[in-house]
């Protein structure tokens, strides 16, 4: 399997199972998004999310900001873990559940959340290292090129690390059985570029002046679900030998 085939298989898995994924995880995603919005309103008096929180006219954030961010982190982790634990078996070929609110086993849920926690920590470290290395290159390249190259390369490395590490933690490969079942790094890079484009759309949508804080949170939630499904589709790809 080439990198391009890996990329097509990732997108194909997402598109092919879109309806099943939406049915199995959509309501969970909506409910956890609503919960996050309610928590935001209770703690900050604003219908929004941690990603859309803005200071007031005096530049001050809400008094309960730390509490809000911590509670939001827990809600997001549980939401992502729950949805991922439901979606991954579908992408691996399991029969989609009939329920619109399927609940994974406690073991699967805990393991999935832990995989995302470990991935997040390692990605934070890896992205910091990549940014530092790229920062050393800035003085050696033309000014305009450097200011474009640094954020683009950092964003791509961020998503590549996410995809590869999630695959390691969620879909462990036994290299001793089949050394050809390896991650298609180039394919992961192509998926990462697509995810960067979606992230850019998320950023533009969340910062556009025409959106209210509530609309920003809704746009962020929808694109966040798409990014998560793309990541899981990439995790689920079976890498095969070229015939």
Structural notes for this entry:
The protein is mainly α. The protein has one domain (3-236). Helices cover 72% and strands 0% of the residues. It has helices spanning 3-16, 18-44, 65-91, 106-137, 143-170, 185-207, 213-236. 30% of the residues are buried. Residues 174-183 have low confidence and may be disordered.
- What is the molecular shape? globular
Structural class: mainly alpha
- Count every helix, treating DSSP H or I runs of 4 or more residues as helices: 7
Mean pLDDT: 76
Poorly predicted tracts of residues: 174-183
Radius of gyration: 19 Å
Please give the alpha-carbon distance between the first and last residues: 9 Å
Roughly how much helix do the residues carry, as a percent range?
over 70%
Largest sheet: none
Task: List its salient traits.
globular; 243 residues
Topology summary:
Elements: H1 3-16, H2 18-44, H3 65-91, H4 106-137, H5 143-170, H6 185-207, H7 213-236
């Amino acid at each position: 399997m080439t990198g391009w085939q890996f990329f097509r298989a990732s997108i194909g898995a997402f598109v092919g199972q879109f309806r099943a994924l939406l049915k199995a995880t959509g309501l969970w995603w909506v409910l956890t998004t609503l919960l996050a919005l309610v928590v935001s309103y209770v703690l900050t008096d604003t219908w929004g999310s941690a990603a859309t929180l803005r200071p007031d006219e005096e530049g001050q954030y809400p008094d309960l900001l730390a509490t809000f961010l911590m509670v939001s982190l827990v809600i997001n982790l549980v939401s992502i873990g729950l949805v991922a634990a439901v979606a991954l078996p579908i992408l691996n070929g399991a029969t989609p559940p009939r329920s619109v609110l399927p609940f994974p086993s406690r073991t699967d849920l805990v393991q999935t959340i832990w995989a995302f926690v470990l991935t997040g920590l390692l990605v934070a470290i890896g992205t910091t290292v990549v940014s530092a290395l790229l920062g050393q290159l800035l003085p050696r390249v033309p000014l305009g090129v450097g200011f474009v190259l640094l954020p683009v390369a950092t964003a791509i490395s961020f998503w590549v690390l996410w995809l590869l590490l999630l695959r390691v933690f969620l879909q462990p490969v036994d290299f001793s059985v089949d050394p050809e079942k390896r991650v298609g790094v180039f394919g992961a890079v192509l998926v990462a570029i697509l995810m960067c484009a979606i992230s850019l759309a998320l950023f533009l949508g969340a910062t556009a002046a025409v959106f209210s804080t509530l609309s920003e949170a809704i746009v962020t939630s929808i694109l966040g679900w798409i990014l998560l499904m793309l990541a899981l589709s990439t995790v689920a790809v079976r890498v095969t030998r070229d015939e």
